[in-house]
Automatic annotation (TrEMBL):
The chain crosses the membrane at residues 21-46. This is Putative Flp pilus-assembly TadG-like N-terminal domain-containing protein. Keywords: Membrane, Transmembrane, Transmembrane helix. Residues 18-61 form the Putative Flp pilus-assembly TadG-like N-terminal domain. It comes from the Bacteria.
Length: 341
């Protein structure tokens, strides 16, 4: 009788096997759910990263155009569409909007969503009744004049820059802090030697001859720290170019550089002076003479004898240089573009 009862109860091993099977089935469902979440979340993350790249690139490209004075909404939307598409692996992303939050900023939103017929397709979320998801990204870029940072260690007077503008442009700059169109583009000679005559229309009191001056070098590099906000920069005496700057001369021919412009200077005794910085102008170097470092420019005024200085012309230029911060001061043709959101 005892043997029959024991057989009816079943063995403990068989009972444990049944419980293990149930637990395994439950855990498999949980593991599959986590796998679905991990894979689909990864897909969403990758898709959003691509969209963010597209939004960033589009906003910077549009801001660059706007900073140059060509800010047309229809063209901006074409730019946004192109960058959204080509920064997406499947090229299905589209721009959702291009707006101007302020007069000197642009916001771009790109997306992949059901409304446009291009949502992100999910691999495993179907088991929860979801097969797709909407994803979007936005970026805001701003542009304007530089305010502070590191620049080439030389400066010249606003009166020198003003000669490259028309009377209308000078009046506009005085009224609004900006001007339309480009500077004249005429090649000029910016002399740094003590034999230079004072530039016509420039003051002679405590003002460097030729309207040109070297700035104090910072950190053993060919650069100076300049801040339009504080408005002051120290000078470095000497007519010739510093040895630290000689290796950078050829690179200046490749593209315009942003140069600080001063509105006045104060004599600090001897050859030293302190400049009141007004803003930054874009200047394309086309030549120089510093003996033995010479690169003549036949379109600029002749620089003979003991003459020392740079040749070139004023222009418009948009920089992505991270060494300069965005400001709100006067725009002298040199602008910077930054992602601000």
């Amino acid at each position: 009788m005892r043997r029959i009862i024991n057989n009816l109860k079943g063995s403990p091993t068989q009972s444990e096997r049944g419980a293990t099977a149930v637990i395994t089935a439950i855990l498999m469902v949980v593991l599959l759910a986590f796998a679905a979440i991990a894979i689909d979340v990864g897909m969403l993350y990758a898709s959003r990263a691509q969209l963010q790249n597209g939004a960033d690139a589009a906003s910077l490209a549009i801001a660059n155009k706007c900073a140059k004075g060509t800010c047309v909404q229809a063209e901006n939307e074409v730019t946004a569409a192109d960058f959204a598409k080509f920064n997406s692996n499947d090229q299905l992303a589209e721009f959702k909007s291009v707006t101007r939050p302020t007069s000197n900023s642009v916001n771009v939103v790109v997306s992949k969503d059901a409304a446009n017929g291009n949502p992100v397709q999910l691999a495993f979320a179907n088991i929860f009744g979801t097969s797709e998801a909407d994803v979007s990204a936005s970026a805001t870029a701003s542009w304007g004049p530089p305010e502070s940072g590191t620049s080439v260690p030389w400066t010249f007077g606003k009166c020198v820059f003003d000669k490259s503008l028309t009377a209308t442009q000078k009046a506009e700059l005085a009224d609004t802090g900006n001007f339309t169109g480009d500077p004249s583009g005429a090649h000029v000679l910016l002399r740094s030697d003590t034999n230079a005559v004072y530039t016509p229309e420039c003051p002679t009191s405590a003002y460097p001859t030729g309207g040109f001056g070297w700035l104090d070098l910072e950190g053993g590099k060919c650069e100076a720290t300049v801040d339009v906000g504080t408005g002051q920069a120290g000078s470095k005496p000497g007519n010739s170019i510093d040895n630290l700057c000689k290796p950078q001369l050829d690179g200046m021919l490749a593209k315009p550089i942003l140069i600080p412009i001063f509105s006045s200077s104060t004599d600090k005794g001897g050859q030293h002076a302190e400049y009141t910085i007004y803003g930054f102008a874009a200047f394309q170097v086309t030549g120089w003479k510093f003996n033995p470092e010479n690169h003549p420019d036949s379109l600029a005024p002749a620089c003979t004898g003991n003459c020392r200085g740079f040749m070139g012309y004023f222009t418009r230029f948009v920089s992505l240089d991270e060494g300069l911060s965005l400001g709100t001061g006067p725009n002298l043709g040199g602008s910077i573009v930054r992602l601000t959101n």
